[in-house]
Amino acid sequence: MSLLIVDRILAVSFSILCALLIVAGHDMRGGAGVMPVSIAVLGLITSLILIAQKKPSIADEEMHHPINWRRFLLWCSLSVITIAAIQDIGSFIAIPSFLFFSFYLLGKIEVKKSIFISLIFTAFIYFTFVQLLEVPLPNGILSDWLDI
């Protein structure tokens, strides 16, 4: 299957998901649906652009690379382990650990950059959800040290 077909399938799937999110956001009370609807509208616009976009003919003639199933299954296992353990170990350990190991497994990124990106993203999650939106995140084993 060419990348053009994969892109179109994903774009159609994502646009359906965004349309459902827009409908669900309109059913929310008060101003609770503004953010989900805004994000869904942006996602719908980008996926429609991806659907309409014409790719060069090279996409149809591209070489097919075999899927590295070992790496894919390792990453899926890592995702499941992270989701299962986030309550016990806490978000502030699970998120950067997941990101670090994902970068290590999927990308060819330096260890220092991987650690830096993982910590910056976790700090962004912390300040956005805990400080700004006041949404509690699972502290796990750090609950004694974190007064959140």
UniProtKB/TrEMBL annotation:
<keyword id="KW-1133">Transmembrane helix</keyword>
<feature type="transmembrane region" description="Helical">
    <location>
        <begin position="72"/>
        <end position="95"/>
    </location>
</feature>
<feature type="transmembrane region" description="Helical">
    <location>
        <begin position="115"/>
        <end position="133"/>
    </location>
</feature>
<dbReference type="Pfam" id="PF07331">
    <property type="entry name" value="TctB"/>
</dbReference>
<dbReference type="InterPro" id="IPR009936">
    <property type="entry name" value="DUF1468"/>
</dbReference>
<keyword id="KW-0812">Transmembrane</keyword>
<feature type="domain" description="DUF1468">
    <location>
        <begin position="9"/>
        <end position="138"/>
    </location>
</feature>
<feature type="transmembrane region" description="Helical">
    <location>
        <begin position="35"/>
        <end position="52"/>
    </location>
</feature>
<keyword id="KW-0472">Membrane</keyword>
<protein>
    <submittedName>
        <fullName>Tripartite tricarboxylate transporter TctB family protein</fullName>
    </submittedName>
</protein>
